[in-house]
Design goal:
By secondary structure, the protein is α+β, with helices and mostly antiparallel strands. Helix content is about 35%, strand content about 25%. The strands form two sheets. Strands 1, 2, 3, 4, 5 and 6 form a six-stranded antiparallel β-sheet that branches. Strands 7-8 form a two-stranded parallel ribbon.
Length: about 210
């Protein structure tokens, strides 16, 4: 087929249409990425606005080695970030709950805690930062459920070195060492417990050294 005939053929027209579609789709994707891209700094600012009332820019960032992992009840709490206020009385810890079953789904929380005299005293607030989108049940974790960890009835557990678990306990068990907290989805609340437990253990291990 001669070049002139090919340029007038349906095959050539189809190629041109496909190239045009590819170009338009690529442009739309590029624009979409620019519009919806959220930087790490913006993600951090959004999280701080939900969990910290003070000036987040004044927080002291703690150096992590990458080995800050804490295991409780077969699940792992991995510390991703940690900050304190200038006085060292408020600790904000980003913790990942993982290795809890259900396809090894994971989630990331920010946990705000109060420290007095180098000792963990209280969980102030817990927020869901992000989660594995393939684990649909994790997305159902509510603010009301996360508020459970701040209740006064768990103060003995928080100050006494205890951990949250999904395991139901007998009336004779020591609730200062273990307290059952579970949502409707067992594996989901296991991951939340692991993240909260990891955050508490990190503060218990490091708060004594000051800011």
């Amino acid at each position: 087929m001669k070049i002139g005939a090919f340029l007038k053929s349906n095959s050539f027209k189809c190629i041109i249409v496909l190239l045009a579609i590819a170009l338009v789709c690529g442009s739309v994707l590029a624009i979409g990425n620019d519009l919806f891209y959220v930087s790490d700094a913006e993600m951090f600012a959004r999280s701080m606005s939900k969990i910290y009332d003070g000036d987040a820019s004044a927080l002291v960032k703690k150096e992590l080695t990458g080995n800050e992992k804490y295991t409780s009840y077969g699940c792992e709490g991995i510390i991703l970030d940690a900050r304190t206020d200038a006085a060292g009385t408020t600790w904000l810890v980003q913790s990942k709950g993982s290795k809890c079953g259900y396809g090894d789904g994971s989630l990331i929380l920010w946990v705000s805690m109060s420290v007095e005299g180098g000792q963990l005293k209280k969980i102030n607030k817990v927020i869901l930062d992000s989660y594995d989108s393939s684990q649909s049940l994790i997305g159902s974790i509510s603010e009301e459920f996360l508020l459970t960890y701040t209740l006064d009835k768990y103060s003995a557990l928080v100050t006494g070195g205890g951990h949250f678990t999904n395991i139901k306990m007998t009336k004779t068990e020591n609730t200062s060492q273990s307290e059952a907290v579970a949502s409707g989805a067992t594996f989901t609340s296991k991951a939340v417990n692991a993240a909260v437990n990891g955050a508490m253990d990190y503060v218990r291990t490091n708060a004594g050294g000051g800011v």
